[in-house]
Design brief:
The protein is of the alpha+beta class. Helices cover 43% and strands 22% of the residues. The strands form three sheets. Strands 5-4-6-3-1-13 form a six-stranded mixed sheet, with helices on both faces. Strand 10 and strand 11 form a beta hairpin. Helix 2 crosses helix 4, helix 9 packs antiparallel against helix 10 and helix 11 crosses helix 12. The longest helix has 25 residues. The chain is globular. The two termini are 14 Å apart. It binds alpha-D-galactopyranose. Alpha-D-galactopyranose (GLA) binds next to helix 5.
């Protein structure tokens, strides 16, 4: 258990018994790239997470030690004046401290040891867990707790500073998730609700294509966002009340066709349809209609593959193999794209045989070993007892 190692290391090196915080990763059932278009999403926080053992100190320093692929230690000053680090996590924490300092937030000296079991670059939002967990820890250590809504905004700003112009789905899922439930979020007004996703006789499984992405560096993610903004700008000329693709209709797209390139139009159409898939998914889950759930997953995947163009040939291969297996009701790539995991709905009685066929065929077709994880939905960021 990762958290036991982290706690034991903390006690050996920092004497005090720490406060232990867990920040989970997230999955997403449907609603991809809709968040920064003020659209709808249906993610959930998961059991895999990042654990932070923390205590306050009187040194005016934030001492952080990471237990990731390799052990590493960084000392941050409370003023937030740091050079760029080589470790990715150092730069996220640097960005967070800078934001908090700029807002005159009273941060205090903290000792922190962290590590976890979320595979990095796999579409499970390890960076949102890293940022939200760290901000939550800093806020617990200082005298002023930061409300979760504000933690989400600070974590999003840190991502933007690093270079990913993301929306708020990941941060909200990581902060507000609830055990056993999917989390429905309307990114237009940030209202949310919970919905159980248990379909009797069916199981949810994640399959990691083991193609890792780096969305901030690749910036294909950011290009999608620009396409969406191009269309909104043009529709706004005809209908000034429009502020995001959430307000745009298929008819609007026809009206601006001649002034826009086909790629931007195709991407905008994808977003409009994806919001609709979230509504349909909510309905299918409420009615326990697993066949419709599976159909929406597949439809969502191929729309991401052919219209929004954010999948990889390996992810397409995983979904295609699933389509040929009787036990797999549906599957799709999850998250920002260009690598990572698929989420699969599988008939429980055919679970073992389906997973084994999936992994075997994938290896045969791509020469890559995929991994799988059973999906367990757990609570959002919290003090871990
Ligand atoms: C990444 C971003 C999110 C969201 C997803 C795609 O995870 O951080 O804001 O846009 O991609 O749905």
């Amino acid at each position: 258990m990762v958290y036991k190692t982290i706690t034991a290391f903390f006690k050996d090196n920092y004497v005090k018994s720490p406060l232990l915080i867990k920040a989970p990763g997230r999955i997403n059932l449907i609603g991809e790239h809709t968040d920064y278009n003020q659209g709808l999403v249906l993610p959930a926080s998961i059991e895999k997470g990042i654990y932070f053992a923390v205590s306050n100190n009187q040194d005016n320093l934030i001492n952080v030690e990471a237990f990731l692929t390799q052990a590493e230690k960084i000392e941050f000053s409370l003023k937030g004046e740091h050079k760029t680090f080589t470790s990715f996590w150092g730069n996220y924490f640097k960005a967070i401290i800078e934001i908090l300092v700029a807002r005159n937030y009273p941060i205090k000296g903290m000792n922190c040891v962290f590590g976890g079991d979320i595979p990095i670059g796999s579409g499970l939002s390890s960076s949102a867990a890293l940022c939200c967990g760290f901000i939550y820890a800093l806020s617990k250590i200082s005298d002023k707790e930061i409300p979760r809504e504000e933690i989400a905004l600070i974590a999003q700003e840190a991502e933007h500073k690093i270079g990913l112009n993301c929306g708020l789905m990941d941060q909200y899922a990581v902060l507000f998730g609830k055990k056993g439930n999917a989390f429905f979020l309307d990114c237009k007004d940030l209202s949310h609700s919970y919905i159980p996703i248990n379909l009797e006789g069916y199981s949810w499984v994640l399959v990691n294509s083991n193609i890792k992405h780096n969305l901030a560096v690749d910036s294909e993610y950011n290009k999608r966002r620009v396409s969406c903004e191009n269309i909104v700008r043009d529709v706004k000329k005809i209908r000034p009340e429009v502020n995001s693709l959430r307000d745009v209709t298929l008819k609007d797209l026809q009206d601006v066709t001649k002034d826009n390139n086909a790629t931007d139009l195709k991407r905008a159409k994808y977003i409009i349809n994806e919001n609709d898939r979230v509504r349909r998914m909510m309905n299918a889950l409420t009615h326990g209609d697993e066949q419709e759930v599976g159909a929406i997953l597949k439809e969502g995947h191929w729309a991401m593959s052919t219209q929004y163009e954010i999948t990889t040939k390996e992810l397409d291969t995983l979904v295609k193999i699933g389509e040929s297996l009787e036990g797999v009701i549906g599957s799709r790539m999850m998250g920002g794209g260009f690598g990572g995991c698929t989420i699969n709905l599988i008939e429980t009685s055919k679970l073992d045989s389906s997973i084994s066929s999936l992994l075997k065929s994938y290896k045969k077709q791509t020469d890559i070993d995929a991994e799988y994880y059973h999906l367990a939905i757990d609570d959002g960021v919290k003090v871990f007892e």
